[in-house]
Amino acid sequence: MRTRGGSTTVEATVVVCAVACAGIAGFALCGGAFARDIGGSTQTARAPAANVSAQAGVAEVVHAIHTADVAMREARPELVAAKYAKMSTDPFLFYRGAMAGFAHDWVEAAAGASDFAHDALVLSSGDAHPSNFGFLRGTDGVFRLEPNDLDTVGLYPYHWDLRRLTVGAELSLRERVSPSTAESTLKRMLSAYVSAFDGGDAAISTARSRGTRPLEAGNRVPTKYLTKEGKLLRGTVRTHVTESLSPEARAEVESFFAAYRGRFPDASQPGAVVDAVSLDGKGVSSLPVRRALILTERGAKGAPRIFEIKEATVRPTMNMFGAVGDHGEFATNLEARIQDAFLHPASGDDWRTVTDANGQGQLIRELHSGQTSIDLERAKPGSRAALERAATLLGSTLGQMHRRSKELAAHLAEIAKAPDAFVNEELRFAREYAAETLDAFAHFREKLPTP
Question: Are 379 and 171 in contact (CB under 8 A)?
């Protein structure tokens, strides 16, 4: 793609050495019982094809997406095919699954260019599109807006995050609200991001947002996964599908969970496992990443607890802005990255990684009924005020997260001197990149064979 963030063209200083998905691993690739139970068929997946030597621009982006999925496509072809099918239904879903294309453009098409200093790295979830934020219940019982997908956590340029957020918002809103509403929403988001730098407050509470319901209902187990008899459901659960595990696979999953349980004080330890199922992902980029649900026995308060186990795969962009080892233990300690990525420490206190018998990391966290993601796709033409509040909350949250970076401090004064110019540059980028993403989306659909 041709996008530039500002009028200055810059040379990319990073190499997307991992775009070919080198190093992707998971229990489904390691041959464990859980892997065999949920690994799926070995049929060849239908995938978009692009001859990069003969085509340019959008074809290169589609090729980058396809290349990044090589290892996963060989291991789980039917799930990658499902991912591509989902991406082909909506531009925003395509964008969510096209991280490799965004990385390609960052290096090859100056998507990282800016008229402002932009080399500072921040700790980031790695993919800050709107739906990757949501209300999480902390160990203190409070729900807060946080990043809720840490699959690509690492160090990134600060405007990588900001641009993933604003382009995602633009694509979510483009055909759902008026152009003026979309523009005002993005401006609120960007202004809140800038004001967070100088201590500005978004002046919005969860009581005025979609957080009202989570705050009221969030202390309950997510009953959507339970039968009337109190077991985990099998079959379709909204956008998920759950399946029984073989006895061998269940024993393996229970061993993962035992290691997790042992890392908490006795008073807060979950009870024994009473049921377990495999769970497919409801997202887009994470759809091929397999998961399991664990149901534990009722505790002292009489309520069961549900935990999610998710393979901790190495994603292409996690070390894109620094070779492994550049940042000491951080380069290999996924749990440390995750714990530090939350704005409020209590939000991530129960997120842990454990290692299975094959040496593969597993991410485990507790699920609560009040946890919900931000969903701009539900926007309606008359929802301008609500959208602006959500945008303010998102922009301010991201700004507060970035404000913790010492590397970014030198850039803040420059941005503070010209906040309108900064907002306008990022708004222009969001519009231009969203338009070019629509071109790539059309090309992707064209190259995706139909059944």
Answer: no
List the domain range (segments joined by +) for residue 263.
216-372
CB-count exposure of residue 20 (10 Å: 0-12, 13-18, 19+): middle
pLDDT digits (tens, 9 = 90+) for 335-356: 888 888 999 888 888 899 888 7
DSSP secondary structure code for residue 69 in this structure: T
Q: Which amino acid is at 257?
A: F
Tokens of 46: 């239908």
DSSP string, 252-272: HHHHHHHHHHTTS-GGG----
Domain presence at residue 257: yes
The answer to the question of residue 249 being in a domain is yes
**Which value, in Å, is the radius of gyration of the alpha carbons in the chain?**
21
Inter-CA distances, 430 with 162, 167, 330, Å: 10, 5, 31
Q: Token pair for residue 177?
A: 């609200």
Q: In what order do the strands lie in the sheet with 372-373?
A: 143-147, 133-137, 372-373
Domain count, the chain: 1
Report if pTM > 0.85: no
Q: How confident is the model at residue 161 (pLDDT cuts 50, 70, 90)?
A: very high
In a domain, 231, yes or no: yes
Assign 3-class secondary structure to 279-323.
Answer: ECCCCCCCCCCCEEEEEECCCCCCCCEEEEEEECCCCCCCCCCCC
Tens of pLDDT, residue by residue over 238-281, are: 777 889 999 998 999 999 899 998 888 877 888 889 999 998 86
Indicate whether 165 belongs to any domain: no
